[in-house]
Amino acid sequence: MSQNIESHQVENRVFPPSSEFSAKAHIGSMEEYERRYRESVADPEAYWADMAGKLHWQQPWNQVLDWSNPPFAKWFVGGRINVCENCVDRHLESRADKTAIIWEGEPGDVRRLSYRELHTAVCRFANALKDQGVASGDRVIIYMPMVPEAAVAMLACARIGAVHSVVFGGFSADSIRDRIQDSGATAVITADGGWRRGSVVPLKDNVDEAIADEPGVKRVIVFRRTEQDISMRDGRDVWWHDAVAGVDDQCPAEGFDSEHPLYILYTSGSTGKPKGILHTSAGYLTGAATTFHDIFDIREDDIYWCTADVGWVTGHSYIVYGPLANGATVLMYEGAPNHPDFGRFWKMVQDHKVTLFYTAPTAIRAFIKAGDQFPEGYDLSSLRLLGSVGEPINPEAWMWYHKVIGGERCPIVDTWWQTETGAILISPLPGATPLKPGTATRPFFGIDAAILDEEGNECGPNEGGRLVIRKPWPSMLRTLWGDDQRFIDTYWNTYENIYVAGDGARTDEDGYFWIVGRLDDVLNVSGHRLGTAEVESALVSHKAVAEAAVVGRPDDIKGQAVVAFVTLKSGIEGDDDLKQELRKHVGKAIGAIAKPDDVVFAAGLPKTRSGKIMRRLLKEISASGTISGDTTTLEDFSVVAALQGGKEE
Length: 649
Ligand code: WT7
Hints:
By secondary structure, the protein is α/β, with parallel strands linked by helices. Among the domains are: 1-50 and 281-473 and 483-516, ANL, N-terminal domain (Rossmann fold), CATH 3.40.50.12780; 522-645, 2-Layer Sandwich (GMP Synthetase, Chain A, domain 3). 31% of the residues lie in helices and 22% in strands. A seven-stranded mixed beta sheet has the order 6-5-18-17-19-20-21, sandwiched between helices. A five-stranded parallel beta sheet has the order 8-7-9-12-13, sandwiched between helices. It has a four-stranded antiparallel beta sheet with strand order 22-23-25-26. β10 (194-196) and β11 form a beta hairpin. α14 crosses α16. It binds 5'-O-[(S)-butoxy(hydroxy)phosphoryl]adenosine (WT7). Residues 267, 312-314, 389-392, 414-419, 440, 501-503, 515, 518, 610 line the site of 5'-O-[(S)-butoxy(hydroxy)phosphoryl]adenosine.
């Protein structure tokens, strides 16, 4: 019996790029993509060396890649570079007065920073960090609201070689403490608070709680944003505005080794303690800058908006490092997408004339659920390209994004990557790739992606297996901070020197990659292994459904029974007839094997803070009715409480 993942999804819609878009695009045809892809994977080192050559180097490298001690890669060996200089100083000659960051606070306040102003702010803060005792190699926690100073803090760390670790502003004191302890951080950069849905998030209070018994933290620098009373501890805490008062606004950008650590970013593994993903300097920047340029097809006059928080890797690579390395204008937003209502994003697209818009499927599904009247109330004609990241996008959500937001005019780049990969690895090129709803399409240049079966053989078209990357790439994680063995065990132990992403996937007859779900979540029904994504997408293609998650529940006869948790669109009530209809609907779209045994209507699904559905919790609920596992990464516990029948923890 085959242990491979089966695939039953049929998606025949194809959307080629318009000739108008292709004519102006950086990569304008599939022929060009195919040719460059072939060349790049035949000799990835040559390709990446070309791309790295576009950066500003203080000393050239003498070896492109050292892979003599896999899985520990070294890229651009012997080179010296300053990441911050590449993102800021490099633009002063031709773009000093160009806006680098447009920022909108949740209350509606707007600020603009030109590249010149960004340079001054970064230099001053970098000098302030040095004055406060922060030196190259020191770890610095950044726990900030989405304000320009969050980006300034990251860039200032990079400028002086300090290693930042951004902690998402929605995380608790415990999460901050874990990350401080694991990274050995000696300084924290925070704010009094940030605005979220009209209330103040008490960031400084959380930091105080986190470090009450952490003598290793010598300095806390506090940006004033929300102006409520907070306590400042003498000798440890200093206001940002005091720290930069009177400091020099020039700070030399020293060159650091290509492999100098740039940042640690913690991802909540599905079990166990968070993993500190380590990214280094030159290779990471090469990956972020190159992918941003080609995939977002950046042009000088674009206004680019990525709605992620800087606390996620998307915020690192595609708000700060990738866009700024390209001299782009980036929009940043502080608050919630539904404040004061679900029209907020679309009003901002209209007001700031956003041309490139990058968000997550979870947000798209929330907008679909809220209703079309919100986007329809605004002028979205400035948009020319849309992006998606974070989960497989259900084809029906893709169609909605395409029609209602993109006006059937904008290509959608469905970008597959991970915190670990540092940069996008699989994505359409918007002027070249014919799009199909629900697939991230083809690998980026230099990326040798494949689907392997259990034995390590390459799967044929429409055979499900493990998504792997067979050759190193410059923005790959270098290790897990302080835990080389876990790095090896987690990603490199299945096949020899091949990176295993942890996703199940298949390619179709055009070589497009379809993610079928996380390998941990695969269902096993009567000996058939099914990915979660296809069944969920079948459910979401029903007109009543906004969002769905499927999990396996232990079943004596079938091994696992399929349980579907379903959220309905606004104004629709679930009943037994609808349950039967949804079962039939899945049976028709995918086959009888995937028909849910149970359908559970839910007001909301449990998600991580970054919006990913936590199927692990749903699995526990359907097996035992309660949850005993770790819920610290859960966004909203009330969702789980409701699913457990109102029982509190
Ligand atoms: C996992 C990585 C990469 C930044 C945000 C998430 C899933 C991500 C896609 C996509 C299908 C996707 C995968 C991946 N994922 N993008 N376009 N299509 N699945 O980063 O938290 O490290 O999560 O997100 O399962 O492995 P992350």
